[in-house]
Specification:
By secondary structure, the protein is α/β, with parallel strands linked by helices. Helix content is 39%, strand content 25%. It has 2 domains: 99 residues; 47 residues, no CATH class. The mean pLDDT is 91.
Length: 153
């Protein structure tokens, strides 16, 4: 891996990547196909922004690493400023990539809302950040506050 040290996390959830004294933990899952979440290749563990050159190297190295088991799906957020870079790397290494799966912040929020609604409909207790939720309206209020908070971070 050209000097990079790469390992799977516990139960193959996540990938730990080290190179030249820098570390990044990459979101990865194997459920329904190996998936590499590129939005987690953004900052080194010391909070330094990962340069485009290093992003390209990290994804390339990780694709070669995961290919030892099987080709991965690369998950790219359409909200990510590096979307074009990720697509370029996937084109260049297409033999190592099963496909690109697109996601977005809005799509993720919708997925989470539906998951929470399912919990409410089953009559199970729902608590988000210490707030008890009993109705769909209460859920929407909490999710709206969380969305506003995450946008201001």
């Amino acid at each position: 891996m050209a000097g990079a040290k790469i390992d799977y996390g516990f139960r193959r959830e996540g990938i730990h990547y080290e190179f030249d004294g820098k570390v990044v933990d990459i979101d990865f899952t194997w459920c329904n196909g190996d998936r590499i979440y590129t939005d987690s290749i953004d900052r080194w563990n010391d909070d330094e922004t990962i340069s485009d050159k290093d992003k390209r190297k990290v994804l390339s190295d990780v694709l070669r690493f995961t290919n030892e088991v099987r080709r991965a799906i690369v998950v790219v957020s359409t909200d990510d400023p590096s979307q074009k870079l990720w697509e370029e790397v996937c084109r260049e290494l297409s033999s190592l990539v099963q496909g690109i799966e697109y996601t977005s912040d809005q799509k993720q929020r919708h997925f989470e809302r539906e998951m929470y609604l399912g919990t409410l409909r089953r009559g199970l207790g729902l608590n988000i950040n210490g707030v008890e939720i009993r109705t769909e309206d209460e859920l929407d209020q909490v999710l709206t506050k969380l969305t506003k908070r995450s946008r201001s971070d």
